[in-house]
Amino acid sequence: MRVPYRPYPGSPHPHLYPLIRVSVGKKHAQRTRPFEAMVDSGAADCMFHQSIADAIGIKLDSGRKEHRTGISGARGDVWVHLVQLYVGLDLFPIEVAFSPDLPLAALLGRSGFFEHYRITFDPAPTPPELEIERIYRA
Question: Which of 19, 26, 86, 127 is most buried when burial is the number of CB atoms within 10 A of its CB?
């Protein structure tokens, strides 16, 4: 799947980002409507805004509480839960850290997302493009 970079919805900045449409759900439960998630090679793992957890009935404090430090040095608490991630026709379980302080809907990071896809960031076209190809590991 090749996807052109797009502006982040609602952002006042004209920057383009590698965004893909995903949805999440709990096992055997309703899933969210599709939303934009940023593919972020600098993110160690997947992090979603608390509103996504609320949408599928996850109570944050029922998850594993962890402390995280962002690139700016800001520290915060997150709650980790297992969810089902839907990317196009693909579905797989991943652990997601939910945070009320994330300034966007979702970051798809190396652990949880990149291990399922071969990711190519291509700056040559206008606009730049992101290519993701599903990989299967034995």
Answer: 19
Which residue shows structure tokens 């949805």?
23
Phi, psi of 55 (to 5 degrees): -65, -25
The string of pLDDT tens digits covering residues 74-105 is: 788 999 999 999 999 999 999 999 999 898 99
Residue written as tokens 């300034």? Answer: 103
pLDDT at 71: 66
Cα(128)–Cα(76) distance, integer angstroms: 32
Domains and their CATH numbers in the chain: 17-134 (2.40.70.10)
Chain position carrying tokens 């995280």: 68
